[in-house]
Every structure is written in C-alpha cells, then in structure tokens.
Amino acid sequence: MKKFLVLAGFAMAMASCGQKAGMNSALEMQRDSLQAIIDSKDAELNDLMTTFTEIQEGVSRISQAEGRVTVADGNVEAPGNKAIIQENMQYIEETMARQKELIAQLKQKLNASTVNVEKLQQAIEGLEKQVEAQAARIQELEAQLAERDIQITHQGEQIVALNSNVSDLTLQNRQQAATMEEQEKDLNAAWFVFGTKTELNEQKILNKGEVLRSDEFAKDYFTKIDIRETKDIKFYSKSAKILTNHPAGAYRLTKNEKGEYELHITDAQKFWSVSKFLVVQVK
Q1: Architecture of the domain spanning 16-169
Q2: Distance between CA atoms of 55 and 113, rounded to whole angstroms?
Q3: Domain boundaries, the chain
C-alpha cells in the first residue's frame, strides 16, 4: 500500500510539471506574437517618420533656394546671377515635384498603416499646406521673372537702338570731321613752282612775260602745300626771282651755305593773302 501511494504522488507531480510546461510554451508564443506586432508597428512608424522627415527637409531646401532666387533677383540681368536663378529655379521645380510625390506616398502609407497616429496625420496636412503655399509663391516668382525677362529684352532692344544711334552719330561726326578737315585743308592749300624761264613758258605759266595770265597753264606742274605746315621752300639755285605778288614783310629770301636761295615765310596768312600761287624763276 505504501508503494502505491508513492507511485500515485509521483504521477501527480509529473502531471503538474506537464501542465506548467504547456502554460510556459503558450506564454512564450503569445509574447513572440506580441513582439512581432510591436516590431511591425515600429517598422511602419519608422518608415512613416523617415518619409515625413524627408518632406520637412525638402520644404526647408525649397525655402532656402527661394531665398537665393529673391536675393539674386535684385540684379537679374547680371550673367552670373541669371545662371544662379535658372539653376535654383530648376532645383526648386525638381524638389517641389519630389515633395508632392512623397506626400502622396506618405498619405497612402498612413491610410494602409495599422498605426493610428492622429498627430502625424495633422502634421502631414500642415506640410501639405506649406508645400501648396510654396508652389503658389514659386508660380508668382516665375511670373515676376518672366516679366523681368520681358523688361530686360525690351531694355536690350532699347540699348541696341541707342548703340545704333550712337554709331550713326559717331559715323556722322567722323564724316563731318573729315569734311571739315578737307575743307580746312582746301582753305589752307597753296601751290608753288620754280623753274627756268623756258620751263615756265613751256608750261604756259609764263606767257609773253606775264605770269599766270592764261587759264591753260599746267596746274599739275605745281606742288601743293599746306600753308600751316610749309614755312620754308628751297629753290636749289643761286638765282631766284619771285614772279607772283606777295606782301613785303611776310617773307625773307635768303641764301644757304651753298649760296642757293631759300624762301622763309614769316607770316603765312599775309604771304598767301594776295595769291595762293607762288611762281619763282630760277636759272
């Protein structure tokens, strides 16, 4: 009988241990299931927050780029600033498109998520409004830049027209200056010739002892000078006689070290006032 009681007690103890083991196994399975659910929700939440943070950073980058465009807009016609504006505007457009895409993805993820985060939903709505406001400002900025481009183009056309007018005026001034210079040269032009009596007669500069009485004299036989520049004339002869009329006191007729005559005009205006032609007979 005593042996029977021992065996019965042992059997009851084994049954009790079996029940405890089963209960521990169920608890472990329940704990693993709950941990899997928690891990899944954490992963969903991390994914949502990662996308949310990326959108926030994008909003900040757009604001910074918008600020650079506004600052550069103060002197948009400068080549360097224009390139910066174009680069920033392209960056803004690309970032804005990415933002809209991320917001759509985030809303879709949130709708499909098992995580109930009301504050995150409200934050997403706030971000969406910020992006919409930025989009409106960018459109306004694009319109302003387009208007500025039109103004710059118009100003450029005006500058081209002004430059053309300046070029025309410059050309006219040059032509007028050239004409005036030519007229000045004509006013200050004179002609001289020296030769033997025979040579002067052959050229009809002398005709029956009179000088320049015929309109048929050889004008191309004369040398043209500018009376403002030519003050001295050499005759390369030891005999020289001035045949044309020139006021006394306006010149000196001297000999050089070789004994050849030279004319020194001391008062050009007075000397050439009677005649613009000088005829000298030499031997």
Answers
A1: Up-down Bundle (1.20)
A2: 19
A3: 16-169, 188-282
